[in-house]
Amino acid sequence: MNSEDISKVKELLSVPQKIVIIPHKNPDGDAIGSTLGLWHYLKNNGQDATIISPNDSPKFLKWMPGSDDILNFEVENSQAKRAIDEATLIFTLDFNHLGRVGQMQSFLEEASATFIMIDHHQEPSDYALVTYSDVTMSSTCEMVYNFIDYLGDTDKITSEIANCLYTGIMTDTGSFKFSSTTSKTHKIVAELIDKGAENTGIHNVVYDTNSPSRLHLLGCALKNMVILEEFNTAYITLSQDELDTYKYQKGDTEGFVNYGLTLDGIRFAVIFIENKEEGIIKISFRSEGDFSVNEFARAYFHGGGHNNAAGGKSDLPLEETAAYFVNLLPKHLKELTR
Q1: Which of 49, 74, 195, 284 has a CB 3.0–4.6 Å from the CB of 19, allowing a cystine?
Q2: Residue 23 CA, distance from chain mean position
Q3: Which residue, 291, 270, 306, is CA-closest to 338?
């Protein structure tokens, strides 16, 4: 954030506001952690703040302090719409295009509130009065810490805020192993632990509370993995029938795509997940090195994200989507094998 943006934010928050904070659809640890961290900060500073999520969050994130106060737009529709209508200030976190909020998009486009965006994805839209965008950041949670720091309020970070922000940084960095993890990231994490983030407990509740059905689903996913050594690529497919067989719950496939990258020599990993309710195949892309899955997802699968982590979708059936993907790989042979 530049000095002009900081001044704008300070002016906006110098008076009481009716604030709505919004993560993207299918929120992950960074989306929920950043919205809750900001929500605690704003409420502790006397603001009237509400979080509205486009849909439900995974069970392994519901322990986070304040999660019971999040409005689910799909379930609490009238209350959520009223909050958007009455809002004077709207924060959008961990996404940079209003198309990422599903059914909420039209209501946000019609809202009279002032918008502030905090996000680390590429190619941000220009809907906000203040846009804090930095693609070099590990996570939106790291950016929320910086946002509080820019306002001169890191001394106001409570244990609740610290736990929320730590969770988002941990999950979006793959437990601090991704290349976006910098020395500054570690310094911020150290500060959060000093302020009360329970790092061991957070890791346990996020990663070590699997149900038997989730582990069986993981076994199914790994059994379905296809390894294309000539392209340094591995992909996984999961059909709706397979999800149903193993009693899929929201969030159960989180991290499955990363298993492909644990194979020696694999630089590109993908998972295709059938969603019959939405009539699409949901896709997650991961890469190592300089192969941009952001560009790949944007070019072929109506998606995008980061250079090494992105998402997309397909309207084709599962098998046709996988076949289409495989047929694209020869175009990128040099990038994948150099």
Answers
A1: 49
A2: 8
A3: 291
